[in-house]
């Protein structure tokens, strides 16, 4: 039996579901997947370059670590894709700003050359801080509240009884209606 929100792989080119929410639910943007919209989310290649240089000034890292660090340091507001980080790493290597050591493929560690270190030292504000500076305090609080709600729902999904799950569903539906009512109200 299919739930109305279950992701049908046949209709979506064989891509599987990611979590308990249907595609387009909005969590693609919140959790680093899908297109970015809004203030502070869309970062250009120049920002990725600056972030790579700033992080590698601290210690050698591989590409996946760089993505994780940027995401963490921006409070989840900026998670560059592998499609932007790995080509940037290659370009900076080709320009002589980075060198590689050990590993193969994605496990290759990158480090700054002397020229790369000089360029990294010229940066004043880390790019991930620029992202969070653009985001208002209430947006950060809303983002945090959303993550806490998702965490609570995940715990209920895994540990609650059927009766508790039914109560959680009712509460979530009431909450969704209340939030939409906020948008419809005049201030």
How many H/I helices?
A: 8
Quote the beta fraction: under 5%
CA distance, first residue to last residue: 43 Å
Q: Describe the biggest sheet?
A: 2 strands, antiparallel
Arithmetic mean pLDDT:
76
Q: What is the CA-atom radius of gyration, in angstroms?
A: 21 Å
| Helix-residue proportion | 40-55%
N to C succession of SSEs: HHHHEEHHHH
List unreliable stretches of 5+ residues. 1-46
> Looking at the structure, what is the overall shape?
elongated
Nutshell version of this structure?
By secondary structure, the protein is mostly helical. It is elongated.
Mind explaining what this structure looks like?
The chain has 187 residues and is mainly α. Helices cover 55% and strands 4% of the residues. The protein is built from 8 helices and 2 strands. Strands 1-2 form a two-stranded antiparallel sheet. Helix 3 (63-73) crosses helix 4 (82-94). The longest helix is centred in the last third of the chain and has 23 residues, at 137-159. The termini are far apart. 15% of the residues are buried. Mean pLDDT is 76; it is low at 1-46.
Give the arrangement of secondary structure elements.
Blueprint: H1 27-30, H2 45-56, H3 63-73, H4 82-94, E1 98-101, E2 109-112, H5 114-121, H6 127-134, H7 137-159, H8 162-184
Antiparallel strand pairs: 1-2
Helix pairs in contact: 2-4, 2-5, 3-4
Task: Quickly list its features.
mainly alpha; two-stranded antiparallel sheet; 8 helices; 187 residues
């Amino acid at each position: 039996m299919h739930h109305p929100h279950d992701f049908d792989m046949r209709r979506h080119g064989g891509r599987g579901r990611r979590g308990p929410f249907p595609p387009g639910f909005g969590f693609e943007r919140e959790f680093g997947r899908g297109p970015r919209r809004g203030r502070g989310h869309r970062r250009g290649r120049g920002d990725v370059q600056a972030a790579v240089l700033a992080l590698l000034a601290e210690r050698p890292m591989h590409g996946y670590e760089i993505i994780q660090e940027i995401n963490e340091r921006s409070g989840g507001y900026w998670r560059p894709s592998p499609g932007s980080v790995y080509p940037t790493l290659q370009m900076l290597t080709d320009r002589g700003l980075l060198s590689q050591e050990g590993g193969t493929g994605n496990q290759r560690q990158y480090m700054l050359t002397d020229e790369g270190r000089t360029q990294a030292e010229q940066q004043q504000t880390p790019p991930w801080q620029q992202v969070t500076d653009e985001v208002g305090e209430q947006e950060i609080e809303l983002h945090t509240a959303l993550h806490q709600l998702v965490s609570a729902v995940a715990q209920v999904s895994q540990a609650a009884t059927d009766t508790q799950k039914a109560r959680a569903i009712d509460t979530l539906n009431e909450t969704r209606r209340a939030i939409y009512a906020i948008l419809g109200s005049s201030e």
